[in-house]
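Possible race condition, two jobs.
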Amino acid sequence: MIDIPERVDVVVAGSGATGLAAAVTLAEGGATVCVFEKQRSLGGTSNFFQGTFAVESHLQRERYVDYTRDQCFKNTMEYSHWRANPRLVRAIIDESADTIRWLEERGVVFTEATINMPDSPLTYHLIRGKGEAVVKALVERAKAVGAQIIPSTPVVSLLREGGRITGALVDVQGEEVEVTARAVVLATGGYANNKEWIKKYTGFELGVNLFPVGNTGKTGDGLRMAWEVGAAEEGVSTIEMFRVAPVGPEFAMGCNLEQAAAQPDLWVTARGERFCDETIGFYDTPVGNAQARYKADGYTFSLLDDSIIERLMTYGLDKGVGIDFPPGTRLLELRKEIEAALEHGSSEVFVADSIEELAQKTGMYPAVLAATVAEYNRYCAQGHDELFAKDRRYLRPLLGPRFYAIRARAVFLGTMGGIKVNERLEVLDKEDLPIPGLYAGGFDAGGMYGDSYPIKSSSGLASAFALNSGRIAGRSALAYLATARGMR
């Protein structure tokens, strides 16, 4: 039988980066804390991030990185056209450098301050052991300072009395058990696996034209609970989206095929029309937004020919997907992966001896695709892209003798909002007043991003928002507990 405490100072719903950062902060501050996790394992998608964002950290100072908090704040707000919550954005940016130090003091090792795209500030702090190491360090620290962590036990609803949060109901093997608490921190990770909500708020069909990466059981529990007690909405339709090809269980993340399809060569729609300057693929958010225009078809294609394959095998990548594939990485297994996909009858990878045959195999319009390739090859020959003004360095013709198409789809790492909060991560009601005793962070909280993830100015911000919002929520809850005790 699971030992459920009857009373604690704070209930934390979720054991990802947000929940664990909040729990450690609270327990170190003297609060009694219980973290309830829906899944059997701890950490969720926080186990998988490779680095996190910070500005003015000691790693950056040591490398003479002069990107400032003020610059980052302005860039982030301008990217969102000031749709983001400026006080929240400022709080997260200002907290970020101290969080690097805070994590190091609790056993996390950072190896580099870098970036994974061109012409961007060095805000991405790589972690030895990736997110899994962060989860492990925070779990160990939370337990060491007295926090209780209970897996396979979701929080299902909040208790409220006289306008204040007074605890939560948790599901213990099918039975609802009441836990009295002075405060609750919601950190359940958003609603990435909720098919109905994805359709309602984003217009996509989950598993048809939008695919979650690394998310399990995220059905919007935190959002629902907050809304049930009167919380306002913000940022509920924002998702961290990008373009991946191919998609399917038979393809490993980061495989040679995925790397090849991400290169800035020729990309076309399901009809066979070119739809973007392919160099936007260096930045996840723009290419995700461009791909999103074709949700009716559900996919686009990356086109290659033998010369492109040979270039990738001999000279390597222009763009690497993930830090394990830096530019210059040679795709030595690319032809083998293409052959294996074709042998297994893949519907994601195609090869043909002519453009017309490739169109027929993929379902593209032969005349449209032929005209697209001819036009693109003309741009390559003259060294100027008259349509989308792509950098001439990446204008490389498709001449055969064989031609390849890899189907690409929109994928996402998570939903990025829903509950309206202020800069103290207090949950706000529809009058913009804090709901006493209720806090939210990470993918449950809205207001950080506007309508798109600001990848270029602040790479690693999603994991940083999780960690920093958890710390801030923990401190805010401690202040609330002290005030509440003083009033008794």
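Job #2 (started ~2 s after job #1):
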Amino acid sequence: MTDTIPIYQQIISYIKEYIDNGIYQKGNIIPSEQEFCNQFNTSRMTVRKAIDELVNDGYLYRIQGRGTFVSHWVYRKSLEVLGFTYHMTQLGYKPSSKVLTFETKRTEPLIAEKLKILPTENVYFLSRVRMADLEPIAIENVYLPEKRFPGLDVYSFEENSLYDVLKTYYKTEVLLKQEKINAIMVEGIYAKILFEKDKGVGMRMTGVDIDTNMSPIAYANSIYHGTKYIFDVIFR
């Protein structure tokens, strides 16, 4: 039966099975390409094709000069209007948050422009570590106009979903997002939180949430762990 399955797919299934069974553990290096060549009696090109696919799917990641490693986690984030809490719950993880900062402050020119408010107006600034099964996977920084959401600072966003609070208490729902994603080198306190190291590779997502009246309600500048998150782009 396996003879009818292409060898590169056999290798993919083999590696996935070893990951699922904990034989190849998260963060650990897997055997070399040459070892897989010997085991499956195939060419390095075939092995590389299998590993490339697993890297692209987020199961593995490479470090130049060191080898290929098992990803710590694979979270798929669809670029749809879904809150973090809902999304993680759907994936079977227990979501939680730790608030780093929640304060009212004078807006900055860029944020005022994004939110279409006056530069003299105040905004709420909410910075949270977002976790799944207690693993830090993102730091979300969100700005919301104080005038639009008076009293928002009475809610605990370690316990509540921001989207749920906006929908329930302010009758505001997000219709769409305008977002940009780019890879960055993360350093300082954010690197300590996400990687427990002085620096690491992350993905920065910046964008605006827009309500059903086509008005901007929030601007976010967030950083996601570079090897723990996959962004699935869904066009509708």
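The radius of gyration is 21 Å.
Logs attached separately.
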